Amino acid sequence: MSKLPKTHKFIDLSDYGRPVAVKIANGLKETSFTPIHVTLAFIVSGLAACYCMIEGRYEYAAFFLILKSILDAADGELARAKNKPSYTGRYLDSIADIILNALFFGIIAHISDTEFWLCAMAFIGLQLQGTLYNYYYVILRNKCNGDTTSRIFEDKTPVALKGEKQKHVNLLFAIYKVLYGLFDKIIYTLDPKANEGRALPKWFMTILSTFGLGFQLLVIAVFLILKLKAIILPFFLGYTAFILVFIGIRKKLN
Q1: What is the largest CA-CA distance in the chain?
Q2: How many CB atoms are closer than 10 A to CB 250?
Q3: Residue 133 maps to a domain
Q4: Which string of b and e fits 96-133 if b means at least 16 CB within 10 Å?
Q5: Which of these, 64, 98, 188, 190, has the minimum number of CB atoms within 10 Å of its CB?
Q6: CA distance 152 to 87
Q7: Left, alpha or beta for 125 (phi > 0: left; psi -120 to 50: alpha)?
Q8: How many domains does the chain fold into?
Q9: H or E segment to which residue 137 belongs
């Protein structure tokens, strides 16, 4: 099952790993491997990327960043292939993402001698970019009868789905709110009526997908390979300005 029906699918520049992710999911469909196992695998890949960055092995770091992106898509694909969606997996995935992102940026700041304030501001920008993309993407999925495991407004603890425990959902949702609550609130405040408009056009979602985590990791990987590590954090800080541009375009479209 796809996240979107065919008529509303767009070219997602952050989702380049999806074809490989689908193959991984199909290969694991009839096994005892669960989406949680795949999530744990992408955490390991992310940590491997961190180690390689510290050691100055930037080509290997780039490889593990891309592998992390692929596995990040594969856990959701496996959940859909097994028809076992879960809030446990959804929140664990997001929690792992933000912690790894913080590690990536902290290490990049260290190896590029970037000041802490710039690292912190770039990280905040990175997360706001991803939040805006996810916000609009989840709205689109809900409007177009797509996957609804992710909710537009994460304001209440969801009821556990079949096969998962409510206490796990409660714990992970609480952690999610601590880590993402401020970013969600900022984006909701900037565009509180996004859910009231019509479905966003494909071309807009394609451009907006440059805010997706997969594309962000690809940018980091390319800069590392090109030995341009000092540019990474300033780039993401500067690119954050496009949040207001995209919100302005969204309002004009509706």
Answers
A1: 49
A2: 19
A3: yes
A4: bbbebbbebbebbbebbebeeeebbbbbbbbbbbbbbb
A5: 190
A6: 14
A7: alpha
A8: 1
A9: helix 116-143
User: Exposed e or buried b for every residue in 176-206, given b needs 16+ CB within 10 A?
Assistant: beebbeebbeebbeebeebeeeeebeeebbe
Domain that holds residue 60: 14-253
Whole-angstrom distance, CA of residue 131 vs CA of residue 184: 6
Determine, yes or no, domain membership for 105. Answer: yes
Distance CA 202, CA 60 (A): 34
Residue 218 CB partners (closer than 8 Å, separation 6+): 14, 16, 65, 66, 69
pLDDT tens digits for 21-30? 999 999 999 9
Cα–Cα distance measured from residue 67 to residue 17, given in angstroms and rounded to the nearest whole number: 8
Q: pTM for this structure?
A: 0.93
Q: At a CB cut-off of 8 Å and minimum separation 6, what does 155 contact?
A: none
Q: 208 phi and psi, to 5 degrees?
A: -65, -25
Whether residue 170 lies inside any domain: the answer is yes
Task: Give the separation between CA 146 and CA 157, rounded to whole angstroms.
Answer: 21
CATH number, domain containing residue 125: 1.20.120.1760
Note whether residue 6 is domain-resident: no
Sorting pLDDT into bands at 50, 70 and 90, what band is 101? very high
Nearby residues of 159 by Cβ (< 8 Å), 6 or more positions away: 166, 169
Query: Please, how many CA atoms are within 13 Å of residue 140, restricted to the half-sphere of its CB?
Result: 24
pLDDT tens per residue across span 126-142: 999 999 999 999 998 88
